[in-house]
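We now fix the convention by which a protein and its fold are recorded. The integers have meaning only within a learned vocabulary of local backbone shapes. A record is reproduced here so that you can trace the correspondence yourselves:
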Amino acid sequence: MTMESIAWSQLYRQANAPTAQRPLRAGTARRILVFARAHHRRLAAFLAFSIVSALLAVATPVLAGRVVDDIVKGSAPRTVLILAGVIALVAVLDAALGVVIRWLSSRIGEGLIFDLRTAVFDHVQKMPVAFFTRTRTGALVSRLNNDVIGAQRAFSSTLSGVVTNVVTLALTLAVMLRLSWQITLLALVLLPVFVLPARRMGEKIAGIQREAAGLNASMSTQMTERFSAPGATLVKLFGRPQQESSEFAVRAGRVRDIGVRTAMLQTVFVTALTLVSALALALVYGLGGYYALKGQLEPGAVVALSLLLTRLYSPLTALASARVDIMSALVSFERVFEILDLKPLIEDAPDARAVPEGPIAVELDRVTFGYPSADKVSLASLEDVATLDTRGGEEVLHEISLRAEPGQMVALVGSSGAGKSTIAQLVSRLYDVDSGAVRLGGADVRELTGRSIQDTVGLVTQDGHLFHDTIRGNLLLARPEATEDELWNALRRARLGELIESMPDGLDTVVGERGYRLSGGERQRLTIARLLLKQPRVVILDEATASLDSTSEAAVQEALAEALDGRTALVIAHRLSTIRNADQILVLEHGRIVERGSHTQLLAANGRYTELYRTQFADDGAPAAA
């Protein structure tokens, strides 16, 4: 490694130091060892080979000095050739060890990345919906990418670097002191001139780079929001493109200016340190040559000292920055552990069982529920706030009791925010009740496995989500083992068969981000096709036809009637015309059931349902008696 490369390495370490040195949690190191235990054999081999490589690195300058001495003394050519052969052998062994060390490093590093990423990904999937409604997606993805990679460096780079540098430093100092203690001490005196400017300049550049990172994050946020389908539409409808362009140009211009300033600071710094290294070499050659001419030092020792000088500065500089590297790795580990320490609100009981076979009744028994506060489901760092909002936990459902018998359709109506969708989420066990019980087939959902609940309950929301995948891929989420015929059957029943057949790629047509290549009605019918393919025993429709036009709604209602036949159904509806034939209609207001009965009974009662019914049909321009 040249002195210039050492300077760049030192600068990089300082510039990328952690922004805050807050106390680390107790037990972080112990938890790291849990992940390391799976790779302990490779780690041991990695460290052993690194030590051998350090020995070889010191051996080469010593052998080179011996060659020079033999040449000056006029030794036999055979001796010089033997030494040259040994140097070549050392080089071959060092190269082979380098390949082995790199293989072990990559295996350990990539293996640790795999372990951490899968652990975080699996854990995040267990988190409640409230976690995702509060968390910035980009911040969460960063934990899976940047922080996981930063954590793995602790093993693939920092650990081996510390061990190798300690061994190299000890051997180099021993050899240099043996050759000339005077020159060695003078070389050590110059070390502060090399390290201290690096630390100060690194801190300065780190501040500039953090500012640049903030500006880059702002640009990324602007691009992410404006380049999405709904964001681009919003800008075109209400935004001012020239102002958007000007704001982006201002941020990009500041990043440009910071880039130029950083480049100049780095260049001046590296040039200065390279000059210091050149002066150190001049010192070795001058003082060493003087001693050699006076017969106090062998000429080969002068060559060996000059070659060993870089092997002295390199480990000393690296060890001076070791604390920065270790802290960076520990901070990255802790940020990953923060995610793993978030406790999922929904977990299977140890003795959980499957949903009972046969037709399923759905029952809510005196259910009370309030959504969890942010401190129970989120992290301030994931929300980009200083402290989490501690509000929450207020009851949104109060003593709710209802029962849908097998094969019955129970409709939920009421004002927005009355608690209808909350009931749907409790039946699907996206949340657990605070008191009371939700039962499927007579069994409390908290005693059932999540997998069996997922297979039993099918939910279609008003804004049915689609992945940026093919139509086939979005359908197979419901039943991965479904055949081609079953896919087409579900599409035809959802009145999408002709449309998909007319597309050049058919089932392999990519629907785009959130399905925006399809119309709103087509997206909704595709989510309904997914439900039809799943064939759950309990169906929940949460405003499932709200975004459809009259023609599409009539077609889908026919398909839904077929899908609901013989199944227990909870239907949340804004259009009261769609639930006239429900076996029971429940009217919710402020988290309480204020009325229940059939369509005819509720109209006769002339209460809240009648008010909603008359208001809706008056808004639709049709008489209430229609």
The radius of gyration is 35 Å. The chain has a mean pLDDT of 79. The chain has 23 helices and ten strands. The domain at 3-12+25-341 is CATH 1.20.1560.10 (ABC transporter transmembrane region fold).
